[in-house]
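User: I'm curious whether this sequence folds into something compact or stays loose and floppy. Could you predict its structure so I can see for myself?
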Amino acid sequence: MSRMFRKLLGLAAWCAALGAICASALGLSSFLAPDYWLSDNMSFFLWQFLYAGFGGVLLGAIGLLLAHRFQALYRLTVAVAAIAIVSLAVLTGFRTVENTIDFVQPSDEVHTLKIASINLEALFLGDPILEAYLEEVDADVIVFQETIWNLQKWQWQRRGLPIGGTDNGIYPANYHVGQLGGLVVFSRFPIEDTASIVIPGVSMPGANVYHDADREILSLSLLVGGQKVNLVAVHPDSPRTQPRWQNKRSYLDIMDEAIAQLRQENPAPIVAIGDWNSAPWSARFQGSLTQNDLKTAYPNGIPQPTRYFYDYRLRWIIGAPVDQVAVSDDVGIEDVALGPHIGSDHRPLIVTLQLAEVAKN
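Assistant: Here's the prediction. I'll summarize afterward.
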């Protein structure tokens, strides 16, 4: 082995160990400083930091076989990297299970409620891939985000068709549209007690016509088996900039107040679902669950990317788990699943719930 090659290997080993420390530090910042924009947003990428951290530690450990000019310092660097990434993994594990519940067994004695939540990213409701998927899923309730309802209606009118197209059973007859047209709920069950809460946001210079800094919370009741179920459709702003991060936090503050008021006025089971634009490891997301006594669950018990960038196949590399469901303690979660790529930049979130207090006659 040439001297130059050994130097390059040594340099690569140093870079791997230092890279592991950097990845771990970025991930740990979301736990240590959750009330700051940059560090809070690091919670979106904990999977990536864990990959990079453990990979760097592995390569750094292999580098221990090499001779280094500062051998003791190198060993210390690898040890720090190992401690840091293990600490991140432990904290991530604890945060994952902080407000989660186990799946309940399927039962014929209670009513189930199957909900599909999809961020459309302005995908047309009449898109054949979307329609085929919804027909396959056969959900009782469909919750759409980023619907742009006025444009959806315009597309149907251009085709000379009613809203939802021909009567093919894909979109239930009962539906409600939020005041801003972004959140839309279709339901096989009667819809009652609708309310749309608009949260004003701060627009950034250069925002395109599709972006609306104002966001809404859509609250309604479903009449399932003679009992009301409170459904809260959620979609705060994406925290890509500090002002939009503030928009999101203001939204979640108002959502917490709305759920608390809902509990007082209508003590029925609560289901909050949608694109939360929050990772499960975000302290603010977990704070909402704790404050409202809500629980969640993940596909196969593991948070998985639902939002992806550029290409669906790269979702584990440049994706984040942002679509969530949260339920009150009188709702059991039978299953949580994710759908395939349907043309949006989000995977569909499919949840099957059990309404324990709604026994079948």
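Summary: The helical segments are 3-32, 37-41, 46-62, 71-96, 128-137, 149-158, 242-265, 283-291. The two ends are 79 Å apart (CA to CA).
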